[in-house]
Specification:
Elements lengths: L1 H8 L3 H12 L11 H9 L2 E2 L2 E2 L9 H14 L10 E6 L5 E6 L4 E3 L3 E3 L3 H7 L8 H8 L8 E7 L24 E3 L4 H12 L8 E5 L14 E8 L13 H18 L3 H4 E7 L1 H8 L35 E3 L13 H16 L1
Parallel strand pairs: 6-12
Antiparallel strand pairs: 1-2, 3-4, 4-5, 7-10, 7-11, 8-9, 9-10
Helix pairs in contact: 1-2, 2-3
């Protein structure tokens, strides 16, 4: 349990709760859920430019990272096609992957196929089911994809001014504007209470809010004097109590609740809002292909990690279909922007390619 680990090392509740957020980010779990301690470890493993456990900001937004990877691939001769939906993986008579078929009927032939889609989409939608072992299919169907996350992107006409650290008169970003701020995280009990409400199908009344202002570091993201605010919030269940839909009314009611919470910490925030984009778990699934809206392609619980990710005997990136590999967050070691799954999968695929 994360709570036990934090209690051993720290006395301050605000500090414990701040650390606890990294143990529940993206997880339908509370700090008191068994296995939550690993999720914290997962978020602080590795290093950035020699600093252990550090995270970095991508100049130009997360899309700039994708563009950098694409540029490196293109420089080595890769051909990149976007807005081309894949219908299914193309298999030969011997059952080997031979490429993919696009929705317009175009066949793209290749000796190997690496899928960055979730295990559910890769194996339940894009791969012919008769080519997969029944126990493997059952395991993929049983992956826990519950997600508590609603992402809200906000455009504001001025920096939030927090009661705890008011803005400077010149309106320039202060150090706390250039990092993540955790709201409604005064103690771990608040996090557990928010989780408990969501388990019953109700969006949290005091949701956990991670607030970042990317434009404080990267001014090119917003017009002069204005800013973009990224809100990573939970807990919001994928399915609301009583089967109620996540319609516009429900989405706006939750966003209003989040904004009311921020207003208590930074009066004037609501008046500064120019526009907002609300992405509930069903929105994240529909737009980005995330099963259940889960940003990790599946829960990071101990029964879905290491040798069991995405399924026992298939943690080595190879799939039951020869020549088809899983290289996204649903593969070992799981979610997070670190590229480990992709790098490892590429190395395995290259080993097999040399044998062809």
């Amino acid at each position: 349990l994360l709570g036990q680990i934090l209690d051993q090392w720290f006395e301050s509740e605000p500090l414990k709760a701040t650390l606890a957020t990294d143990a529940v980010i993206g997880a339908m779990a509370s700090p008191h859920t068994p296995g939550s301690g690993y999720v914290l470890l997962h978020h602080v493993m590795g290093e950035l430019e020699g600093r252990r456990g550090a995270w970095g900001y991508v100049a130009g937004g997360m899309g700039a990272l994708s563009q950098a990877i694409a540029g490196a691939a293109a420089a080595r001769g890769a051909h990149i096609f976007t807005e081309k939906a894949v219908c299914h993986v193309l298999l030969g008579k011997d059952g080997r992957a031979q490429g993919v078929v696009l929705q317009d009927g175009t066949e793209v032939r290749s000796k190997l196929v690496l899928s960055n889609a979730s295990p559910q989409i890769t194996f339940l939608e894009l791969t012919p089911q008769e080519e997969l072992p029944k126990d493997f299919v059952q395991r993929i169907q049983q992956i826990d994809t519950r997600s508590p996350v609603t992402k809200i992107n906000v455009a504001v006409d001025r920096l939030p001014s927090f009661l705890a650290a008011p803005n400077a008169r010149d309106g320039r970003p202060l150090p706390h504007h250039q990092c993540a701020s955790h709201l409604n995280c005064e103690d771990t009990h608040l996090l557990h209470q928010a989780f408990a409400e969501a388990t019953h199908g109700h969006p949290s009344r005091r949701p956990m809010i991670e607030l970042c202002i990317p434009s404080a570091l990267d001014p090119g993201l917003a017009p002069r004097g204005c800013h973009v605010v990224s809100l990573f919030t939970q807990y919001t269940p994928s399915v609301l109590a009583g089967g109620q839909p996540w319609d516009e009314q429900a989405r706006n009611a939750y966003a209003d609740r989040v904004f009311d919470c921020i207003e208590a910490y930074a009066p004037g925030f609501k008046a500064s809002v120019i526009g907002r984009d609300i992405l509930t778990p069903p929105d994240l699934e529909r737009i980005f292909g995330l099963p259940g809206g889960n940003i990790f392609h599946g829960g990071m619980s101990l029964d879905q990690l290491y040798f069991a990710r995405p399924a026992p005997s298939y943690s080595g990136y190879r799939s039951p279909v020869t020549g088809l590999y899983l290289c996204g967050s649903g593969a070992h070691p799981g979610g997070g922007v670190m590229g480990a799954a992709g790098r490892n999968a590429a190395q395995v695929a290259l080993e097999d390619f040399k044998r062809l």
